[in-house]
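We emphasize that the prediction below concerns an isolated chain of 124 residues; any contacts that depend on oligomerization or on bound cofactors are therefore not represented. The input was used exactly as deposited, without trimming of termini.
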Amino acid sequence: MTQGTGHGENGDRDRSSEEAALSERLGKLDQRLSELRDQRIKTEQPAGDGEDRAARASAMALGFRLSSELVAGVVVGAGIGWGFDRLLSTSPFGFIVFLLLGFVAGVVNVVRTAGAGQDRRGGS
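Result of the prediction step, given as a token string:
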């Protein structure tokens, strides 16, 4: 029986040394994986990318707003001119006059909106 007990202790030592070696290898692997993840993140996302993306989205939203205001002014002016032409039978004149007025109104709205956007950015 004493031999069996001695053999068991030796087996436990071998098993604990194997577990220690596996633990060490696992730790090294985890460290290497962390380094590779950090390198991948650095190459995929340059510093300040979140701020740059937000600024780009804000500028794009402002651009869409300005263009839609210009187009809306022209469309509304053309619609009113077409309506006056149909109502008063002044075929192309009402359409042309109100189309130009709509264009001017659209440009004024764009300048007003862009100016307000510049004031907000300059004050910050």
